[in-house]
Design goal:
The protein is an alpha/beta fold. Helix content is about 30%, strand content about 15%. The protein has two domains: about 150 residues, 3-Layer(aba) Sandwich (Alpha/beta knot); about 80 residues, tRNA(m1g37)methyltransferase, domain 2 (Trp Operon Repressor, Chain A), CATH 1.10.1270. The strands form three sheets. A five-stranded parallel sheet has the order 2-1-6-5-7. Bound molecules: S-adenosylmethionine (SAM).
């Protein structure tokens, strides 16, 4: 899968993709991350990418011209398998379901905004969608792009080594139910400062372990993310929902 990132800070991405799963995916040729400097599509001496907002007001707005030219050069043909995404605090919230859908694309182009944001014509006439990574305002789209690339790249077939391993993570259909949290994990030592790993995980009985993990995933989801569960699952978790569907401490 090819990821394109359009940014005025290309050096920002030297860090995020130089480690772990994403780096291995790049090295193996499963994922290709191409960083593009938006200023390469400016035509003035100062390589200007921003201008004052029409109507007045604070800050600067990213001009549409360089962004349109860049996207049209990087992706000259628009196809359904190529997705153009504008990172924006105002976009639809990014979640695992969205990551799954994006991982089915062959190419993803992420546009990173800065300043007060991007001329609205980019959202209206160029991007396929606006994505937000959370209901807060970042200084720029670069961190958001890194989050999206990381979450999507690990879903590309072959990246996690074991094709099924992403399926057992939080928010995926874990086999215990749709969108629950992963079960908690323990490792050696079995006794750490007097806190013992659950005995059942040490006894080697796979069916017992499967049942235990399923119960623990349900309990943890009910405690920390009751919004992910149906009333029936909440009732089965042993946790007591309040009138608001939340769990009492
Ligand atoms: N004036 C904008 C607003 O209030 O919605 C915020 C602009 S922000 C300072 C600059 C850029 O950061 C945005 O154009 C966008 O690309 C990026 N950004 C900020 N928050 C984001 C978020 N939660 N998710 C994705 N991108 C974000």
């Amino acid at each position: 899968m090819i990821f394109h990132i359009l940014t005025i800070f290309p050096d920002f991405f030297q860090g995020p993709f130089a480690h772990g799963v994403v780096k291995r995916a790049c090295d193996a040729g499963l994922v290709d991350i191409r960083i593009h400097n938006l200023r390469d599509w400016t035509h003035d001496r100062h390589k200007t990418v921003d201008d004052r907002p029409f109507g007045g007001g604070q800050g600067m707005v990213m001009k549409p011209g360089p962004i349109f030219q860049a996207v049209e050069t990087i992706c000259p043909e628009r196809t359904p398998a190529r997705r153009i995404v504008l990172l924006s605090a105002q976009g639809r919230l990014f979640d695992q379901a969205k990551a799954n859908r994006l991982a089915a694309q062959s190419e993803l182009l992420l546009i990173c905004g800065r300043y007060e944001g991007v001329d609205e014509r980019v959202a209206e006439h160029l991007a396929d969608e606006e994505i937000s990574i959370g209901s807060y305002v970042l200084s720029g789209g670069e961190l958001a792009a890194a989050v999206v690339v990381d979450a999507v790249a690990r879903l590309v077939p072959g990246v996690l080594g074991n094709e099924t391993s992403a399926a057992f993570e939080s928010f995926q259909d874990t086999g215990h139910g749709e969108g629950m949290l992963d079960c908690p994990h323990w490792t050696r030592p079995a006794d750490f400062r007097g806190w013992k790993a659950p005995e059942i995980l040490l006894n080697g009985n796979h069916e017992d372990i499967r049942q235990f993990r399923k119960r623990k995933a349900l309990e943890k989801t009910a405690r920390l993310r009751p919004d992910l569960l149906s009333d029936r699952e909440l009732a089965g978790s042993g946790e007591v929902p309040t009138a608001h569907g939340k769990i009492e401490d």
